[in-house]
Amino acid sequence: MILNLEQKAIKILLPTNSTGQININLTTSPFSEKLIDELSQLGTFLMINGRTVSSIVAAGYWLRKSHLHVIKSQYQTEQLKAKGTVFHIAPGNVDTLFFYSMITSVLCGNQTVLRISNKLSEDTQKLLTLINQCFSELGSNSIISSLMTVIQYDYNDVITGQISAASVAKVIWGNDDTIEYLSQFPLRANIDNNSANICFPDRYSVAVIQINDETQVLAAVDNLLRDIKPYIQQACSSPKIVYWLNTAQCLQDKFWQTLDSQLIEQESLETTDLVSQLLYTQRLPLLLETKKINKNNCQLKQYSLLQVMEVESVTFASIKSHVGLWILLSLQIDELNDIALFEHCQTVTMSGIKQAQWQGWLNSVQQPMKRIVPAGQALAFSHVWDGIDLIDALTK
Amino acid sequence: MNWQHLLSLPVYDLCAADKQEVFTPALLSLAKYHYHHSDDYRAIVDSVYPNFLESDKVPALAVRLFKHHLLKSIATDDIFRITTSSGTTSQQVSQIVLDKENAQRQQKVLATIVKQWLGGKRLPMLIIDHPNVIKDKFSYSARGVGIQGMSLFGYDHSYALNEDMSINIDAVNQFIDKHHGKNILIFGFTFIIWQYFIQQLNMQKMRFNLNNAVLFHSGGWKKLQDQAVSNQEFKSQVNAVLGNVKIHNFYGMVEQTGTIYVECESGFLHCPVWSDVIIRKKSNLEEENERVEGIIQVNSLLPTSYPGHSLLTEDLGIIFGEDNCSCGRKGKYFQVNGRLAKAEVRGCSDTQS
């Protein structure tokens, strides 16, 4: 069966020479050598030709052969079959996430159609250009180019309905409203009766940092910077809150100053974002309900680009309204048990805290977060994301 | 604040030093008033501007704050009216809390400013809109507020449009015939005048020759800029269709109703004595120099029932000078160049774009 994407309202970005006729029955064996081979060639191509863009290098690095084999080794791949055609709806501005979502699907041998935002960053456009170039080098026999289609269209019930009806699964990244809206379109019924919407809702992430002396400041700064710099801190995985575990105030000050000066050196904010940053810092005292409970004092530490709001506790509203833009809530804790996480917490990064220590915390009380990673790796993609095993979900 | 004294001041005659002497202490005392009367304002100031009370520097609130929070410096029982900004259904609107005194003061100041341009007498008034925009009395839209406010300067109010935004040509003709030879006031929102009046008259090849009319209009240039229509083009089209009418654009916002900024004969918007305009740098929000484009901050002495006395807008503009406009009026004069790019909600959670 053919899904026809050759429509006026749809723009096909990848492959550029696509006829728009997608064979929805075309799949291949998950983790086949040909797939791994071509994907790792794509990885090498990206690392060489995209070396000026760190997110592209990271994407290429993720595709190295040894890493794909490590993933493969975790599954009984000879018993797995591709699921079929999978429709991915990528998040608006966290560019590279779409790439991993799509690649994981292809690695499972699925026919993969991805809808991305109409507003693309320069880096994303570059990434797409490079994949297109690599496809033409791989030639017409390439399996991955026949399994990957990237499109743009203004949300439109007819098109969303058509693609959904041709797919056995949808991978939806979005807030609750988006997920609800996109889930309503029926998927293709199949004999295994295993069609599914795989949803990644809105989440937030936090950092836990302990610094004992000045020599540790720089490394801690580097790690947090790596986690908050991309996508102006708007990725779900970028920490919005820093919990300071028994760290002297002077070391914290040193940390913030260093972080700020590194940010200014490397980044800037557009005027619109500066105004939004000001708006959120002014909203924070209200979102934190400082006056109502007449405590929960908060105090802004204003740096050049970085804004740090020293708070006593965090409210749900203050997290939900967070806009990134390098604003961090800062809390003091005496022990890990002082951390109170909301249900939608995704990532906790640990900086300067030994695994044995946080393992003990994990064992003592059930925590809602989906993963704990070392600081600096908040944005590293894993095929198990938000507790969902994508390989499992995208094969049968 | 001594409003009796403030209201007696001439609108456009104080030079910089004289204005400073009155305005600066008045704004500061107003800010302190809000600090003591609005829990929300005090929470913001204590957290974000902890040195406010010692430094005497009045912080500007982001104007979008009023779209998220209902800020007020009066008791709930004293709310006389809540004014909202216009906005499509998907957008949040600003909510401005007014007590009777504040609402009256807005009208009074608006009247004093407008009289500077229209003279003291009421004029026959043609409103380029449909009569139903002023229906809801408690929660006015910005369009309703604007029309309601301006209506005080006219009599025999006639509406030029039908509810479906088509021209009510009978009403227009009737109005013009009836007031032939008299000074008349035409009022409406810039885009509506352009799209539903001037363009339509043009299409129907209708021309008028109104030599004693003043056209007052406001509401922003965004939609006209999208159609590449400049203020200049607007004026020349209006003159071509309506005749030699005097045209005054004005800038203002529902968050500071009353202190409007009217465009003079030389093409500049003028600051009245009760408000002040500051331009902030696009790179870091610090104060910008004259003749450089930046973000417009508006300070006004009028808001007492809500802490809207100092606002960072999302409009871009340039101050061209102070006290030396070629039209002869004192005070700062400036232009508005458009809006900041809309802030996008972005991140993992946004797939709507």
Which short descriptors sum up this protein?
A: 396 residues; alpha/beta; Aldehyde Dehydrogenase, Chain A, domain 1; Aldehyde Dehydrogenase, Chain A, domain 2; 2 domains; seven-stranded mixed β-sheet; six-stranded mixed β-sheet; 14 helices; 39% helix; 20% strand; globular; B: twelve-stranded mixed β-sheet; 11 helices
How are the SSEs placed, and which strands pair?
The complex is a heterodimer of chains A (396) and B (353).
Chain A: E1 2-4, E2 11-14, E3 21-23, H1 33-49, H2 54-62, H3 65-73, E4 85-89, H4 95-107, E5 111-115, H5 122-138, H6 144-147, E6 148-152, H7 157-166, E7 169-173, H8 176-183, E8 196-200, E9 204-209, H9 217-228, E10 239-245, H10 249-266, H11 271-287, E11 298-302, E12 307-311, H12 316-320, E13 327-333, E14 345-351, H13 355-364, E15 371-374, E16 384-385, E17 388-389, H14 390-393
Parallel strand pairs in A: 4-5, 4-7, 5-6, 7-8, 9-10, 9-14, 10-13, 12-13, 14-15
Antiparallel strand pairs in A: 1-3, 2-6, 11-12, 16-17
Helix pairs in contact in A: 1-2, 1-5, 9-10
Chain B: H1 3-7, H2 16-37, H3 39-48, H4 52-55, E1 61-62, H5 65-68, E2 81-84, E3 95-98, H6 100-118, E4 123-128, H7 142-151, E5 154-159, H8 169-178, E6 184-189, H9 190-203, E7 213-218, H10 222-226, H11 231-242, E8 246-251, E9 261-263, E10 269-270, E11 275-280, E12 294-300, E13 310-322, E14 332-339
Parallel strand pairs in B: 1-13, 4-5, 4-6, 6-7, 7-8
Antiparallel strand pairs in B: 2-3, 8-9, 9-10, 10-14, 11-12, 12-13, 13-14
Helix pairs in contact in B: 2-3, 9-11
Radius of gyration of chain B: 21 Å
Task: Please report the total strand number of chain B as a whole number.
Answer: 14
Mean pLDDT across every amino acid position of chain A: 93
Helix content of chain A: 25-40%
Count of DSSP H/I helices of chain A: 14
Tell me the Rg of chain A in angstroms: 22 Å
CATH superfamily of the largest domain in chain A: Aldehyde Dehydrogenase, Chain A, domain 1
Strand residues, percent of chain A: 15-25%
What does the main sheet of chain B amount to? 12 strands, mixed
CATH fold description of the largest domain in chain A: Aldehyde Dehydrogenase, Chain A, domain 1
| Element order of chain B: H for helix, E for strand | HHHHEHEEHEHEHEHEHHEEEEEEE
Helical coverage of chain B, percent range? 25-40%
The low-confidence runs of chain A, each spanning 5 or more residues with pLDDT under 50, are: none
Low-pLDDT residue spans of chain B: 349-353
Count the beta strands of chain A: 17
User: What CATH architecture of the largest domain in chain A do you see?
Assistant: 3-Layer(aba) Sandwich
What is the first-to-last residue Cα distance of chain B?
Answer: 48 Å
